């Protein structure tokens, strides 16, 4: 046990980083007193106690009785759920794309996850506690929106990759949700990933056209074997890589026609056909965006939110700094996305989009005790991460020297 | 002002309650209305309502607040515009994906649609690129009028499209060493392309008796042999056109359209006797066209017209402004084609070739209100397209 003097003025007991509470381990209850709580869905609470037992939130409220022997923490800043990256490659050491086959439905990206990877320490330091790992984004390649009129690689600066290095597969496998501490895999099978992007067709193998890709997907889902049956039965959602408006339109029409749920990822201009996306019932994973992102893309994000499409934000770390996640939400908010949608896109909506809404993204009883303490509003880029909790364990503090 | 509300109304139609009839109407008066289906109407008036032509006839002494132009023709129909979806629209791993639908490849947000529309083309046949022997199913679509291809579709899966020539075999390789690409396959020659056609036809026919012979696309080939949708074959040189006609004879293809048939003027008897119909490629100044370096003579359309063979002219305006369809009748008239036949060859004739003449191709009451507005007599060098009406909506305003 180490004793720290928090900059917020209170003496606390700090569990060691590796003491993330696995199921069954006995740990004393934790009571966190926070001046302000960002619940995760856009709503906020003032002067509440968040009670944590065995890594789970057991109670939230102003008049929660603190049990005897509980460790108590007082935070003057803003307590929020942990940030959820709607698409990233943290903890993957590349080699996540298989160029030899176009259909790999049963491949799981979780098998390539290294829980001790240094990416995760940087993720924690930025307040990112949960990450959706998706195929084809490792090894420095990242989703790059193909916007007419802009040269390939234009988004290298913010996307970390670019169309030229993008490796995609028609059915690359199953995404995973992991935490940035404790080696926790929240879901080894979060979605079945599909690509409606041209990047999946630009290979020396079948299929090489949108029409044959659709034909192949129809054949796979009609046969309904394995994971394709699970998706058809509604047991699993889809993570659909779609970049251009035409690709989004094809993806939405196809998913709607088959009654499938899920999210489109990487479609910067989807907001220009927001009603189509809304009608399909699909969610959207947008970003990452940075200072060079065009107002057209940011306004499209706002339009998508206005149409009522649930939004999460992509990150594409480690190619990009983990701070890009908050940047993305803040830029979208600045362009007109409601505060509620921007906040929820970091927390509650993001949890729903990654298929873990019952566990992540909200400060509510029954949810995982993943928190970030901010010096101010998380959407205000001047706010800093003070400390980060995952599964009821303090895993990062901004005085931690090894995080510099 | 009526016209200021015209563009806004179609968008409102679906939002308005049913009991309030929201009639988007537009009236255009022209010195001459060329209907393509009947005699030209001097001082004519065309009235469009709810996307259709609701009246056409003499304008009388007062046409009210109608828009005034020099001439009106039907919207142009281009069966050779090479709208195929661009990259990632060809299945490179097989030569006979007859079952694939080009509609699935099209990008409704491509700027090419607007270029076609502004040049007067209101309907195009989108066919697969000529890179596979039998490339798949073409679709007849409007060049605007909706954010999705489905909304713009006039005839779904309008034809089966294939190619005879050097294009399908161009990238294929003969197997030497270790095959490292799916381009290691037949055909690698012009003869091989013909062989692939004949094998696909024989296998499809055999699949009627032996189910195992069926392959993806065999049903679509049988449909063509049974007189369903037309078979459109792109063939530019005399020998390729001849091969297409041999295929028609050998397999008794009821409805063959040879597209881009630049050199059929070299053997007009063959074309006339074949019973096939033809789409001529855009003319070029020097006569040579890009496809196969074939020579397209100025009198090609005139020859077909004289012989009574059904044909259409085609353009490629969104790829090459010089090759826009609105210019082609002028070239064909330079080669001897009369005005009426030239007008028909870019409107009613192409609509008839793909079975859409009940909806488009002429100015008649009840047909789609697709119109081209001209600054003078159509196809004269001094005249140009100044306005376009698509589905009753003034999408290019001559007053702008």
Provide a descriptive summary of the structure in words.
The complex is a heterodimer of chains A (404) and B (400). Chain A contains ten helices and 19 strands. With 404 residues, chain A is an alpha/beta fold. Chain A is globular. The two termini of chain A are 22 Å apart. Residues 1-21 and 137-165 of chain A have low confidence and may be disordered. Chain B has helices at residues 2-6, 9-13, 111-118, 149-152, 190-206, 218-225, 238-251, 268-274, 300-307, 328-334, 339-345, 348-353; strands at 25-33, 41-49, 52-58, 67-74, 76-78, 121-126, 134-142, 153-163, 231-234, 256-259, 277-280, 311-313, 371-374, 385-390, 393-396. Chain B has an eight-stranded mixed β-sheet. In chain B, strands 3-2-1-4-13-14-15 form a seven-stranded mixed β-sheet. In chain B, helix 3 (111-118) links the parallel strand 5 (76-78) and strand 6. The longest helix of chain B has 17 residues, at 190-206. Classes of the chains: A alpha/beta (404), B alpha/beta (400). The interface between A and B is medium-sized, with 23 and 32 residues.
Characteristics of this structure?
heterodimer, A: 404 residues, alpha/beta, 7-stranded mixed sheet, 6-stranded mixed sheet, 10 helices, 19 strands, 22% helix, globular, disordered N terminus, B: 400 residues, 8-stranded mixed sheet, 12 helices
